[in-house]
Structure formats: structure tokens, C-alpha cells
Amino acid sequence: QDLQGTWRAEVVRVLAAREEALPGTDTKRTVQIIEARVLTENERQGDIVTFDNDYIQLEEGDVFYLNYLQDINGA
After folding, report:
1. Gap between the Cα atoms of 43 and 15, Å rounded
2. Are the CB atoms for 53 and 64 separated by under 8 Å?
3. pLDDT per residue over 26-58, tens digit each?
4. Cβ atoms 14, 32 nearer than 8 A
5. Which neighbouring-strand residues pair with 11?
6. What is the Cα–Cα distance from 69 to 75, expressed in whole angstroms?
7. What is the pTM of this model?
8. Which end of the chain is more exposed for a tag (fewer CB within 10 A), N or C?
9. How far is the C-alpha of 9 from the C-alpha of 34, rounded, in Å?
């Protein structure tokens, strides 16, 4: 199993969203907690993954590319 890569995924739900300041600035950003289904054809296809998203705001049904990095403990 690859420890890093990119999956095609679809937003199942936005579980939460919060505003936070960028460190060292007065600039605010929105961080979402996203639940998404892996669409890429591999051993993880159909799996639901949860992650923090601070890049582009997503909505239920959006399809996007998710970069992942798995630590050595498998998390």
C-alpha cells in the first residue's frame, strides 16, 4: 500500500467548519472537517475518509482530488 498519493474523492458531508487566524497574521481562514468517499479505483475505493480542509471550501457532492500522506503507524 502506498504511503502517499492522490485519490479522486466525493464529499459525503461537511461535518463542521471553524474560523481561525493564520499564525502570525490577522488573516482569517475557514477550516472544514470533511467526510469523503474515495472514488479512485484501488483497494480503498468506496472507503469513507475524514480530514481537515483549509484550502478551498467544499460542499456535499463536490468531486475533488485529495492528496494523502500516511504516517508510519498507519494513520
Report:
1. 25
2. no
3. 899 999 999 999 999 998 899 999 999 999 999
4. yes
5. 36
6. 9
7. 0.82
8. C
9. 11
**Set of cell numbers at residue 35:** 467526510
Grid cell 502570525 is found at 24
What residue type is assigned to position 5 of the chain? G
**How far apart, in whole angstroms, are the C-alpha atoms of residue 53 and residue 35?**
10
User: What is the percentage of the chain residues whose pLDDT exceeds 70?
Assistant: 93
Which of 4-13, 33-42, 52-61, 62-71 is predicted with the least confidence, judged by mean pLDDT? 62-71
Dig out the grid coordinates for 49 from the structure.
Answer: 475518509
Using alpha carbons, select from 52, 56, 36 the residue that is nearest to residue 44: 36
How far apart are alpha carbons 62 and 10 in whole angstroms? 6
* Look-up of cell digits 475533488: 64
All cell numbers assigned to 8: 479522486
